[in-house]
Structure formats: C-alpha cells, structure tokens
Specification:
- The complex is a heterodimer of chains A (282) and B (431).
- Chain A is mainly alpha-helical and 282 residues long.
- Chain A folds into 2 domains: 59 residues; 214 residues, MetI-like fold, CATH 1.10.3720.10.
- Chain A has 13 helices and no strands.
- Chain A is flat, with a radius of gyration of 24 Å.
- Chain B is mainly alpha-helical.
- Chain B has 2 domains: 157 residues, no CATH class; 244 residues, MetI-like (MetI-like fold, Orthogonal Bundle).
- In chain B, 74% of the residues lie in helices and 0% in strands.
- The chains are: A mainly alpha (282), B mainly alpha (431).
- At the A-B interface, helix 1, helix 3, helix 4, helix 5 and helix 6 of A face helix 5, helix 6, helix 9, helix 10 and helix 12 of B.
- Chain B: It is found in: Cell membrane.
Chain lengths: 282, 431
C-alpha cells in the first residue's frame, strides 16, 4: 500500500515535470525562432533556416551602422518618452492619490468612481478628438504630444492603484506628524512617499515600459520617421513588405526584448505585490 | 400679507442672507462681511474669468447646439470640440461661483455668532488647509479632463451626428441626427450583419481567450506550488517569460510563425503530418490561432498573481480538511479556489475587460483579416479594431462612435462588477 502510494506520487511528479517541459518548449520556441531568424543572412524568409549554416550579425550591424537606419534615434526617442512618462506619472498620480486617500473633499467619491470607469476605456476610443486637440495646439508629429497623452491616459488606473496602497499606510503615522507641526506637503514628502516606494516603483516601471510596447498611439500621432518610437519603427519594418524585412525586424526586436525582459524578471516580485496590494488591498 | 411681509423682511435682515444675496455679484458678500481682500480677489477672478472666456463659451455653446450655420465658414468639428471645452470651463466657473456664495454665507454666520474675523495670515492658512486637496488634484484633473474626458465626450457626441466620409467639414456642415445611427446599426443590412458577427466574436473572444489564460495560469500555479516540485524559482522565471517580452514583438513573431508561406508552423511542424492549415486566410483558423496566442501571452500574469496568492492560503485549513478525510479535489474546490478567486477578483475582471479591448493582438496578427463577404469588418475583427478601421480607414466616424458607445456600456458593466469586488470601496466608511 505504502509502496504503491509512493510510486503513484513519483509518476505524478514525473508527469508534472513533463508538463513543464512541454510548456517550456511552447514558450521558448517562438522566441528562439525569432532569435535564429535574426541570425539568418539576407532577407528572403523562404530560405531561412532555424539553424542557419552561416549565422551572421549583418542585421544587427545594419541597425546601428547603416546611414538609412534610424534605429538609434528611435531608441533615444523611446528612452526620452519613457523617462519623462515614468517621472511625470509618479508625480501626478502620487499627488492625486494622496488627496484621495487622506482628505475629505467635495466630489471625492464620484472622483473614485470616475477613475474606476475611465480606467477601462482605452485611449483608442477618443483618438479622433485627441488628434484634433493635438493639432490645435500644434503638437502632432511631436514627442511632447505623445507624452501628454500617455501622462493623461495613465491617471485613472495608476491613481487608483496608488490610492489603494496609500490606504494601507496607517493614518496614525501622518496624524502623529501633524501633531508635531508638519504641514500637508511635509507629511506627503517625509511619510507617505518613502513608505509608498514599492507602489511608486511599480507605477514608474509600468509607465517606463509603456512607450516601448505601444505602437498604436505613436502610429496616429507621429508621422516623420525621425520622430518614431521603437515599436512603431519596428512595426514599419514588416508592415511595408512583410516577408522582406522580417530578419531585420527580428534583430531590432531582440535588442529591445532582452533589456525589457531582464528588468521585468528582476522586478516582477514587486510588480505582483504592488498590483495585488494596490488593486485589491489583499 | 402683512405677516408675510414681516417675516420676509426678518429673513432678509439676517446677515447670512444679506451676505448670500449680495454675493450674487461675487465679492460683494465678502465686502459686507468686511473680508475686503477676499472680496477683491473674488471680484477680480470673476471679472477676468468673464472677460477671457465669455466669447469662447458663447460661441462654444452656440456651436454645440447648431454645429455651425454657414458651410466652409463654420467648421462643425471644431465647434463641437469648442463646445465641449466650454462646458468644462463653465463647470469650473460655476464651481467657483458656488464657492463664493457658500463662503459669504459661512463667514456671515461666523459673524452672527460674534466670532471675530481671522487675521490675514489666519485667513490664508485656512484657505490653504481647505483648498489643499483641490490643489493636489488640479494638475491631474485638468490633464484627465482634456486628454481622456473631452475625447470620450466628443466620441459620444459624434454618435448622434451624420459625420462620415461624404459629409465632412469644412465642405459640409454636420447636424444632429438623434438615434439614426443606432437605428441604422440595427436595421441596415450590411451594418446589422457586420455588427452581429463582430459582436458575437468579441464575446466569444473575450470569454474564451481570457478563461483559457486564467485556467492555464491557475493550473500551472498549483503545479509549481506542489511541495514535491524542485527548482521552483527557475520554473517560475521561465513561465513568466511571455509576459516579460513586449507583447507587440511576440505578436508579430507569431504572425510570422503562422504565415502560410514561410511560417515555421506550417513549413516545419505541420508538414511532418502532411497538413497545411490556412491560418491567416480562413476566419475559423485565424480565430483559433488568435486564442492560442492570447493564451500564450496572458497566462503568465495570472500565473504570477495566483502564485503570490496561493502562498497566503492558511495552511491550517488544509490540515483540518486532511483530518476530515477531504480529497484533493474537495480541498481545491472548497479551500483553494474560493480563496484565490476572492483575492484576485478585481484583477481577473480587468483581464476580461482588457481582452474585450485588446486591439493590439487583433490588429498586429492579421489586421482583423481575412475579409468576409457582405460585411465591412474582417473575419477576426473585434469591436475595437472594427471601430479603428471605421475611423481611420473608411472615415465612418458616426458609426464608429455609435459602436464605441455600445462598447462603453458593456465596459461600464465590467466596471460595475469590479467596483463591487474591490475592497477599497468596501472600506470607504473610514472617513
């Protein structure tokens, strides 16, 4: 009896590992395939091999060296937008979240409802009007226009997330500080912000990564190639002539996927805990 | 009559009422209360508000109602946006005005109770204290209003106009057409058929793709959580990988993988079994591919979420179940599942809402294609990608807007459920 129990358990564990193995293959295959495509010479997809006979770095070289390549500029644009977006969103949302978490004011409850509802509406729904508005203030085909949309659009979700986190910080702390004569901003700066670092890191990270992943807004807002962000530029590699530039696209994608994936994997623990505590107060 | 007059004059003689009535012209009530600095500032704010915005609001409101009267001279779309912005400015104006009335009244009440007026510094401090939360939200609120709310209101308004490719400003004026667009959506053949098929697929897509994600994520989380499994950290890291790679990159890779001519799935894998599947040109197979890809993309988030929550399930509950001789399935159904679902419900609802709006995968995989006969949306188009095409490709703005409103209503239902499941609202009684 005990013997068979043990045996059964062993078989079970083997099957579990087997299942993991299958999952690893399913996860790894597309990524590995893309990596190998980027090492294939030429751009004719019909003659590509999973294991090319003469692997080459020509596509990587092209991205950086070729005068026709805007890749480095796109990288700079994306980094610029991402940094401003990360910094700006932390400032704006933490101010809002502080007011919503700690103060009573007219419209507070409806404000929260509004965040919850608006957070579900994708920016795409208002794209026509956004474009016209940007046009009237002269910010189409401009990275600033793009930043403005990102910064405004992230408010509902992130304000709600940070507010949830602020709520978990004991109110006694700031009341004690106020007893000692600290003003509103001082409480915010010396008590709330330091204690909310984990969630602020999550907000910064999300908003840093968003411009690297989003291709739709840039596609609508930006028109000149030297203003493109990475996602849009790469999309255009394969959007124009699909089969001809996939190898180049693969090379360009791998160079953004690797740093982003590394940052992500390093910080994923904080991402999860931030999301669960902010969104559900678990 | 006489008594009435008497009580009326008594009422009017009360300082709080005098102050309120005087401040119908902002600032006068404050003067009456001998709060001169405040009165002057309010008066200046009011006058400058009126001078700077009067014209804009006047034209805006007029434009909102008429959408212009002279073609080429009046641009209906710009008038519409001006009208919406006017409404917001007007809202701010009214808020300041109401504050003025309330402020005059409360100061007068304080004076009735013989409290002396605060000094300048006290007054400023009180203003700062009471106004603080408003100052904090003001920058964000302004951005939110102009970047999210105005565009959504604009879309809402377009649904009730006749704005399309053939009837576009500045050549033509738009007009309000009531519910015509919705009626067309329900009655005109091509719109009705397209709407029904896109809507059905959107529902199937949202439910199936998201549920697959959640089931696979949950299943894997349970497996990794098993005590007998080793190398947990490594396994978790690899399982999270699809989430870490930017989604647009993965989708475009999959799009190439599924490509019938050079994609590896047909060429390298299915050719072993002597079959070819038309992944991109057959609506059914394109949908199957999309659901598989979305499962691949989406399960790691759920997996990571559940892994975190599983560790917080109280162990003594399982021990108690062991004593009672509960089977593994029973333990899962009655302990693990409720606990996990309860803790993550809002985020799971967001997953459904996210897929409902998942424009990226549909558009990047196949641009919503293949085309379908007798329909103006592609075979894999969901509502949002259809709206995108109607807006940016065929310029059917009015229909796109009408569909957006229908989507908005559905999204509000998601939001409602999420709202009910969110703990932060349950604890709102704290203040």
């Amino acid at each position: 009896m005990a013997m068979s129990q043990k045996k059964k358990s062993k078989i079970e564990v083997t099957f579990i590992y087997l299942f993991f193995l299958i999952m690893f293959i399913i996860i790894g295959y597309p990524l590995f395939w893309a990596l190998m495509m980027s090492l294939n010479p030429g751009s004719n997809m019909l003659v590509t091999d999973l294991f090319p006979e003469s692997p080459t770095l020509e596509h990587y070289k092209w991205l950086f060296m070729d005068p026709n390549s805007d890749y480095v500029i796109w990288y700079q644009n994306s980094l610029y937008v991402a940094l401003v977006n990360a910094g700006g969103s932390v400032i704006i949302t933490s101010l809002i979240a502080y007011a919503f978490s700690r103060y009573k004011f007219i419209g507070r409850k409806y404000g929260l409802y509004m965040f919850l509802l608006l957070q579900m509406f994708p920016a795409l729904m208002g794209m026509v009007a956004l474009y016209i508005l940007l046009n009237t203030i002269g910010l189409t085909d401009s990275l600033y226009g793009l930043m403005l949309i990102y910064l405004g659009g992230q408010i509902p979700f992130n304000a709600w997330l940070v507010k949830g986190y602020f709520d978990t910080i004991p109110k006694e702390l700031d009341e004690a500080a106020k007893m000692d004569g600290a003003g509103h901003l001082r409480v915010f700066w010396t008590i709330m912000l330091p204690l909310a670092k984990p969630i602020l890191a999550v907000v910064a990270l999300f908003n840093f990564m968003a411009p690297f992943m989003d291709f739709l807004l840039p596609r609508i807002v930006l028109t000149s190639p030297e203003k493109y962000t990475l996602a849009l530029g790469l999309y255009n590699f394969i959007n124009d002539q699909f089969s001809t530039n996939f190898t180049r696209f693969a090379a360009g994608s791998i160079l953004i996927a690797i740093p982003i994936a590394l940052v992500f994997l390093l910080l994923q623990r904080y991402l999860i805990s931030g999301l669960t505590s902010g969104a559900t107060k678990g | 009559m006489a008594t009435n007059h008497n009580s009326g004059s008594a009422w009017i003689k009360k300082p709080r009422n005098i102050a309120t009535i005087l401040s119908i012209i902002p600032g006068l009530g404050q003067f009456y209360n001998r709060r001169f600095l405040k009165g002057i500032s309010l008066l200046i704010v009011t006058v400058s508000f009126l001078i700077t915005t009067w014209n804009y609001i006047d034209i805006g409101i007029w434009g909102l109602f008429t959408l212009g009267t002279i073609p080429r001279d009046h641009h209906s779309i710009q008038l519409l946006i001006q009208g919406l912005i006017s409404l917001i400015i007007l809202g701010f104006g009214i808020a300041i005005y109401l504050y003025n009335l309330k402020d005059a009244r409360s100061d007068a009440i304080a004076r009735e109770n013989h409290r002396s007026n605060p000094t300048l510094i006290q007054g400023m401090a009180a203003f700062y204290n009471n106004g603080f939360p408003y100052f904090m939200i003001l920058p964000g609120l302004l951005m939110l209003l102009f970047i999210v709310v105005v565009p959504l209101m604009f879309m809402l308004a377009l649904a009730f106009t006749d704005y399309n490719q053939y009837n576009a400003p500045p050549r033509h004026l738009l007009s309000w057409v009531g519910l015509n667009n919705f009626v067309d959506l329900a009655n005109v053949g091509i719109w009705k058929d397209t709407f029904l098929s896109v809507f059905t697929w959107t529902v199937v897509w949202t439910v199936v793709a998201t549920s697959f994600q959640i089931i696979l994520g949950l299943f894997l989380a349970l497996l990794v959580n098993d005590k007998r499994i080793k190398f947990k950290r490594t396994i978790r890291t690899i399982l999270i990988l699809p989430w870490a790679v930017p989604a647009f990159v993965s989708i475009l890779i999959f799009s190439a993988l599924f490509n019938p001519t050079f994609g590896a799935i047909n060429r390298d894998i299915l050719s072993q079994f002597e079959t070819m599947i038309p992944w991109l040109s057959d609506p059914f197979w394109a949908k199957v591919a999309l659901i598989m890809i979305q499962t691949w993309l989406g399960f790691p988030f759920v997996f990571a979420l559940f892994t975190g929550v599983l560790q917080s399930v109280p162990q003594d509950m399982y021990e108690a179940a062991d004593v009672d001789g509960g089977s593994r399935l029973q333990k899962f159904r009655h302990i693990t599942l409720p606990h996990v679902l309860f803790a993550t419900a809002p985020l799971l609802i967001m997953q459904y809402a996210g897929n409902f709006n998942n424009f990226n995968i549909i558009y990047l995989f196949n641009e919503g294609n293949p085309a379908v006969r007798g329909q103006n949306a592609g075979g894999t188009d969901i509502l949002i990608s259809w709206v995108y095409k109607l807006t940016f490709e065929t310029n059917n703005y009015n229909m796109a807007a009408a569909i957006t409103i229908i989507m908005g209503i559905i999204i509000s239902v998601f939001a409602f459920f999420q709202f009910r499941k969110t703990a932060s609202f349950k604890e709102e009684g704290r203040y």
